[in-house]
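Design request, tokens follow.
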């Protein structure tokens, strides 16, 4: 699979039969809708694309997630939701026998997933659990983190639903599960195993469940969603409505690069031009162009509408990635913010 941007002459909703869609920062932000999410997903579904929502959030039940999506204009069934809690329970089954004691530190979604996998849920290190399953919950506190630390110190296997350091909310970015896992790791010195993205476990589970021909991963974070796409062998679409920015795309390491870039989920409904190498080191995407000279990114002129700004990002990625992949060292100070959404997008 190419390390660069891919192209699609047909809309992505027509090319892929399944979309693996992240939630926070993609379909919604906290409890608020994201512009274009409902329109993009419902229209894609009407055109034959199936949807599975794949989230690193392990605190909520699939039914709760499905209800929220439905309220936001994206009708969703619980079996169209795949959570990191389910992936964590699957990971536990690779080493633990049915009925084994597991200390669950997290929300109701993780408790349910661990129970449904056949394990006995306990809430104290004194119960001598064989594993600690840790996931995010907004009411998680010191008492629960301390119990996890005590159990891990006594030899329990530490499994994290995900290692996201931050969590997008309507008010900004809050500490994510990775930050809370870090407290247990700091207290014990033990590095946990993770079931969530960027590990592609959930993607593989979702594709197998759906029996898909070709799946597209959609996310807002390069270090989790798109890294998981790369490691799992899937093509990935980065939408610019969440954590990672267009500038992050240009500076992305090979294992975290997207294959497609879009402003929001309406990018499922359009084609995506592939960058082409032109004369004098320039890379072009329609009327936009970029190149790297002397280790510094140089941008050509582009129009002011949304697609023009996206094309400039694509050209910049192509130029920067080609330069780096050939052994060059790109000066990050030469890469501007490349604000796609701020100018009327």
């Amino acid at each position: 699979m190419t390390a660069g941007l891919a192209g699609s002459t047909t809309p992505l909703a027509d090319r892929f039969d399944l979309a693996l869609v992240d939630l926070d920062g993609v379909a919604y932000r906290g409890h608020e809708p994201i512009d274009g999410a409902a329109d993009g997903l419902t229209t894609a579904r009407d055109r034959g694309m199936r949807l599975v929502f794949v989230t690193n959030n392990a605190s909520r039940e699939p039914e709760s997630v499905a209800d929220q999506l439905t309220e936001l204009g994206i009708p969703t069934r619980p079996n169209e939701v795949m959570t990191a809690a389910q992936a964590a329970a699957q990971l536990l089954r690779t080493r633990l026998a049915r009925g084994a004691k597991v200390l669950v530190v997290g929300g109701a979604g993780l408790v349910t997933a661990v129970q449904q996998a056949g394990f006995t849920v306990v809430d104290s290190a004194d119960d001598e659990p064989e594993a600690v399953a840790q996931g995010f919950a907004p009411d998680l506190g010191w008492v629960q983190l301390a119990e996890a630390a005590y159990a891990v110190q006594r030899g329990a296997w530490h499994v994290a639903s995900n290692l996201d350091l931050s969590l997008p909310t309507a008010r900004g970015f809050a500490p994510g599960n990775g930050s809370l896992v870090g407290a247990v790791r700091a207290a014990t010195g033990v590095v946990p195993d993770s079931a969530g993205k960027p590990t592609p476990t959930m993607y593989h589970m979702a594709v197998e469940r759906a029996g898909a021909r070709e799946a597209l991963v959609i996310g807002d974070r390069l270090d989790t969603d798109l890294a998981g796409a790369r490691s799992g062998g899937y093509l990935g679409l980065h939408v610019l409505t969440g954590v990672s920015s267009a500038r992050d795309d240009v500076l992305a390491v090979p294992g975290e690069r997207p294959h497609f870039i879009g402003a929001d989920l309406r990018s499922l409904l359009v084609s995506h031009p592939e960058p082409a190498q032109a004369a004098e080191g320039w890379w072009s995407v329609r009327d936009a162009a970029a190149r790297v000279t002397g280790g510094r990114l140089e941008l050509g002129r582009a129009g002011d509408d949304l697609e023009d700004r996206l094309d400039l990002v694509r050209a910049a990625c192509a130029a920067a990635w080609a330069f780096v992949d050939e052994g060059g060292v790109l000066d990050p100070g030469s890469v501007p913010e490349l604000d796609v959404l701020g100018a009327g997008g």
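Comment from the thread starter after seeing the answer: thanks! The mean pLDDT is 94.
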